[in-house]
Amino acid sequence: MTEPQSDADFFASVVAEIENEAQIRATSGEYPRALLRTLDEEFRRWLPDSASQQGIEESIRGIELASYVDPVVPIDSRSRLGRKVKYSIRRLTYFYHRHITQQITVLGIHITRPLRLLDASLKQLSRRLTALEDSLDVNTIEREELLAGLSGGKLTEDLSAEIVTAMSSVAGRILMTDSVDLDLLRSLQNPGQSAYGVGPAVIPGNDDLELRYESATDHLNVLPGQSLAGLILTGMTDRLSLNEQLRTLRKALNKCAPGARIVIIITLPKYWEQLLGPVGADLLDGRPLHPETWVHLLKREHAENIEVYKASDQSSALVTAILK
Amino acid sequence: MKIDFVIPRYGPRGGAENALGTTASKLAETLGWDITVHATCASSSLTWSNAEEPGISHVGKLAIKKYLVDSGRSPAWSELNEKIKQSPSSIDAATQDAFFHHQGPVSAALRDGVANSEADLIIFGPYLFWSTIAVLPTVAQRSIVVPAAHDEPFLRLSRVREMLSSTLGLIYGCTAERKLLESVHPIAHLPQTVLGWGIDVKQGDSLEAQTEAGIDPSRPYIICIGRIEHAKGTVSLAQFWKNYCTETGTNYQLVLVGENNAQIPSDHDICVVENANDHTKWGLLRGADLLINPSAMESFSLVIFEAWAANKPVLVNKYCGATNGHIIDSCGGLTYGSYLEFESALSRLLHDSDLRNTLGRAGKAFGSSRYNWDSITNRLESFINRILVQKRPS
To answer: Would you say A272 and A241 are in contact if contact means Cβ atoms under 8 Å apart?
Structure first.
């Protein structure tokens, strides 16, 4: 185990212990609820709105805190007489206040109970959905293990040159995702192209490039429509399931402006089989797609000028197109 | 290369303005570029009243142009502020313009000075002031913005969206800030860099600082540095701390260093230190066992990097994207999201010096590797060069 890993593990264990301790104390009744509510009220008052949108569990906690009403009315006063009068009124009306606050607390319980049931149903639904996804696709862990064993073919020089040529006339933003080829990105940037790369793998020490370390899906979700003048899809075309590839393609094309240049880099299926052997080829059946399939998909998305270039070593290919 | 910076005020005040002024100075020193800072003559963000003489001055190779303020924060601001807070997404443009006008600092001379500048690129920040919202559109085709934003209602205004969308690029303090802005406005496609800010470690002896601040040197203390006000979470921190003292009978004291806008009084448990200079601040930081940043509204938080530079661990608000992100990346401190978590985390830190040392060391390593000035100026130089050579749609 490396030093940073052990530091991170130690840190995670300390955080877990603290959260666990706080949770136990919250449920033990060791602290009066009214006191905790008063303390947390000012704390929560100055939190950003997004803090209260952190799931049903957090909302339920908020309702529970808010629905507890303390029947013991404060009797602080500037004068002793005032304090005595307030104390007397509090004693005389305590039965009334307690009755009201109990009803409010019961109301809070009635509100939070269905929310908890809803939360449980959503969690169950999420589990079923995951199971359904798994049944439709190769087990994710197994797939990751197989893919981890591959070194990922380096883009050949002839294909790199084709991409640079294809993108040379583009004026505007060019996105390369999600397996970013740093040399290609650099080649695109050098003639002044506004190209950037997005991918989940951290690539330290490339400050001359515009790189964002996040998943392609996360990035595509926040990209404005028609904001891209060029799109290079790579990496995901070898790794993702068929459904994921189709979904990503559709989403990415929605972010491209009319006239945008599209480049899809794929490993050729025959080369892929050689790399994986029979076990991998069977278990990862359907990935990557043949160039002909990409041509078909792009035609269906109303792309034109579709062309296919195969690498000189027959390891990979490009499908280029222009979006109508 | 000629680069201008536009900030509402220049000097060691305000987190983002201070960071931008210092960054401008570092660029001028290290790259030899022609760098000019445009700022108003104001020093207080509460009034924006003129406090300095207008004109040009130099700090090393950095040129600073100061312009008179025509109007600062006016009485009409409070009402507009409340109105916007209630429904920021549906406020009309005229009301937004009025809000920014009354927010200040309004300076026609600053606007004209920037518009007449021959700079290749003009960097504006933070987003919330008239000097950015009203001046940037006049030079949008040469502009970059440093939003220095956190999650607040003003961020959702349509004028903010228009301003951000019109720039050539954005410079963020941290990834959490980038993700926040990209989730609120359609700007994810724009060129950007997550830069962060560097710090300059200053001298300061802890015993001298404690004597100067009137702190009992026989008692250990924890420290919180920054404006003392509700929105910064300091009032909540004071309440938590008072209760913690009652519950545990700790001998520790909480030292609050900053402008006391919430009027928190000094007493046995809390010591408020106002008007501390850099030496006193750093001396007090070195004498503390840890630093707390209770604010949920930070776009970067330089102060936690100052604490790490002094080998001190930090305790921060779990709901602040920026500081929580720094903690996750660095393992340099702990977070709290309620009183009970505050009590548990603080007890653990105060009773375990090994833990404090481990976290402080991890924070220092993170800060010095990721946010040293060499790295920051290199990354900024690279970003500016990229922006200037990129082809843009006609």
So the answer is: no
